[in-house]
Amino acid sequence: MKFPAIPADEPLRLETLRCLSILDTSPEERFDRLTRLARRLFSVPIALVSLVDANRQWFKSCAGLSETESPREISFCGHAILDDGILMVPDALLDERFHDNPMVTGQPGIRFYAGCPLSVANGSKLGTLCLIDVQPREFGEEDCALLRDLARMAEQELAALQLANMDELTLLSNRRGFCALAQHALSVCRRLDKAATLLFFDLDGFKAINDRFGHAEGDRALSAFAAQLRHALRDSDVVGRLGGDEFVALLTGADATVCRATLARLETEMAAFNRHAARGYAIEFSVGAIPFEPARHDGIAALLAEADASMYENKAFRKAGHHPQPMAEAARCQ
Q1: Catalytic-residue membership of 255
Q2: Chain segment 185-223, per-residue pLDDT in tens
Q3: Same domain (yes/no): 161, 195
Q4: Choosing from 133, 167, 202, 245, which is the catalytic residue?
């Protein structure tokens, strides 16, 4: 069996997938009607809308299959997202990649597979619309064209989710998307007794950038800061733009030491960016950091309010002439 390779854009792909806030959600008619239609049109026992997560494939819709997920390392869809075209496996027992795959030798007994990748606006392939049969079969050009048409319909539904949960400028989660992801992450931290810290960022002097250089340059500054956040933070952290020049990040499994190290890394990388950008201004920020305390914080809204107040304390501290103090020390990561 051949394990699927990891796509070159994997960090962005996973971030995009999680920004949709779709994983582990309840069945939805808009996806289920597509898999029902696919089963009927192609006369196959199984049709799936499969989303490839970090270590699993999870089925947003699974017509003809009782399971809702399977390991990524044995997934056919993990292979399908590596290319633009349809992955066609006429007979899995004759394919060296899959002949000894547990889903071929055991349940559901896959012999035929056809999976069309599902892409979103930034080019990331999040999963597939796929067909599965327990008998070998052939697939013609007309069949491929029809499967692509159904996949485009699934992509339109994903695009609608993306518009609802993602900030179009920075491609980070918007307020709605961030709050949904962060609330889920806090519930996991509470259940597993894991630490978490919320960071609330506000750009210093952003209005002056807009006034002096124009709103297009202001948008570039926002996008640049978002990119630095992605680079400095871990893939497991939940990052979002609340609106304007306000950004947030929930660091899960992060104690005070991790928090301070993260802020120090961001400050260092931001300083390096400013030295080399030569845009006529520097992108600087104030930050508030609040550790999650289950006894005090009943959810993400309470954390946001407290971190917002902490950020303004930090901003006032910096305006008072204490700018040289490192961000990691100015923020209350304790």
Answers
A1: no
A2: 888 888 888 899 999 999 999 999 999 999 999 999 999
A3: no
A4: 245
